[in-house]
Design a protein that fits this description.
This protein is an all-alpha fold. It has four helices and no strands. Helix 2 crosses helix 3 and helix 2 packs across helix 4. The N and C termini lie far apart (57 Å).
């Protein structure tokens, strides 16, 4: 099936595939009959080098270094909305507390 809403059914003997179906067919795992299947194996998905928490901690460090007004609440915690923007991901209140504690622990070590 292609993104256009068209589809094509192939029997066990195969058939010529119209150009509009090639990319979706390859994406679905199809391999041309005259090709070596190993050449079409996708690379393993890249795993992020940093965890969600590490990214949040890095964002807190950026906020500490830049010292912009409004980055921290009156209680001294990072503003969660600003932290989410700096980190580029969703930050829950729990994420914030855990990351803030880790940054403080690392600074005290």
């Amino acid at each position: 099936m292609s993104g256009s809403g068209h589809c094509m059914v192939l029997g066990p003997d195969g058939a010529e595939i119209p150009q509009m179906f090639l990319q979706p067919a390859f994406a679905a795992g199809a391999v041309p009959a005259d090709a070596v299947a190993e050449e079409f194996v996708a690379l393993p998905p890249q795993t992020p080098t940093k965890t969600h928490q590490e990214l949040i901690q890095d964002a807190i460090k950026v906020m500490l270094e830049r010292s912009e007004e409004g980055d921290f609440t009156a209680a001294g915690l990072p503003d969660r909305r600003r932290l989410a923007k700096v980190a580029g991901l969703n930050v829950t209140a729990e994420d914030l507390i855990i990351a803030w504690q880790a940054v403080n622990d690392a600074a005290g070590a």
